[in-house]
Specification:
The chain is α+β, with helices and mostly antiparallel strands. It has 3 helices and 5 strands, in the order ααββαβββ. Helix content is 33%, strand content 37%. It is globular, with a radius of gyration of 15 Å.
Length: 97
């Protein structure tokens, strides 16, 4: 399960929706609790990532901490993310962590 999660975030960080899509079922639901976002299916999820990648120079997920329940086939992960905005103003990149 950890490898599936890591593959998903590798796809996010590398702006590779095919990698992301390979980790999700066609009818999956993706929620981003910190932003009150709920998306259903590949089309909605791809649109969100296209907007993310359009607005950020880079995205980096790191320092993963996993909790797994192999009996119930469930996993939870905590991580840090650094989003670097595209250049604005005087050519300065801005990190949001």
């Amino acid at each position: 399960m950890k490898n599936l999660v890591l593959s998903y975030f590798k796809g996010v960080d590398n702006e590779d929706f095919t990698t992301i899509q390979n980790t999700l079922s066609e009818t999956c639901r993706l929620t981003v609790e910190t932003h009150a976002v709920e998306l259903n299916g590949h089309i909605e999820i791809k649109k969100m990532f296209k907007n993310l990648w359009k607005n950020y120079k880079s995205v980096l997920h790191h320092e993963f901490k996993f909790i797994t329940d192999t009996e119930l086939n469930k996993i939870s992960v905590q991580f840090k993310v650094v989003n670097t905005k595209k250049k604005y103003g005087f050519g300065i990149d801005r990190n949001i962590e």
